[in-house]
Amino acid sequence: MSHPLNTPIGRFGIETHEGTGTRVVATIPVAGLVNPLTGAPTVAPLAMLLDHVGGLANHIRKGDDEWTLTTELSLELVPEAVDLIAGHGDPVVAHARPFAHKTRTALALAEFTHRGTVIGTGTVRSFYIVAAEFTDFPSDPAHHERKTGLADMMAVRPGPGPAELRQAADPVLNNSLGVVHGGVAATGLELVADAAVNAAGAAGDPPLRTGSLRVNYLRRLLAGDQSRYEATALRVGRSTGTASAQAVGADGRQALTAHYTAYR
């Protein structure tokens, strides 16, 4: 099933092929996309796919009066995933399933494959809320236009630092609760963290490639004048690098935090 272009899922080209009580299957096109800060091929949209399949696996277990919010997201990839994806135009496939029993929270497990090869795994933890207030997705014809390139898809532009992206307000990128979609925000964190570790490396070194991204959602992310993704390299060595990243909302408050590890 394709999703409307005026939704975050549709903007990223995600297609959902199955969504039952025991399994969710979806795909995303990633080949050809580059990090707007580095110009290099990227796997960042896999965070968007993970949030979708893992969040849906948790969401379909909700009660009639409940809704779900992502509270944690963890993505693990083989470092060569970016090269495998860039070399072929096939989409990445994600399979997700619920893990253990549901309480106030639920956990979903996901696996990613590309051309039949397993390239990663991930988890999404969701929190169940009640009495949610929903907003409509935008209906202006401009919001149904297809975007190309991550910068336009995400409505981001480089900030003053080498590892900063400014998040412009775009109603298409909001979820049904009217705040920036959790997968969009996680994608932004991966982009700036990747840029941070590679900017801190020695000139001429081969690029460090994403190994893991662990995200905590602290509060809702609202896009506006001060909203941005920014990262700081913690340590960069000959074969690995780590960075911390955060998403800051329109009110200037930290909304998400992430830890990132890359390998050469």
Automatic annotation (TrEMBL):
Keywords: Hydrolase. CDD domains: PaaI_thioesterase. SUPFAM superfamilies: Thioesterase/thiol ester dehydrase-isomerase. The keyword Hydrolase applies. Its EC number is 3.1.2.-. One of its GO terms (molecular function) is hydrolase activity. Residues 178-254 form the Thioesterase domain. Pfam families: 4HBT (PF03061). It comes from the Bacteria. InterPro entries: HotDog_dom_sf, Thioestr_dom. This is PaaI family thioesterase.
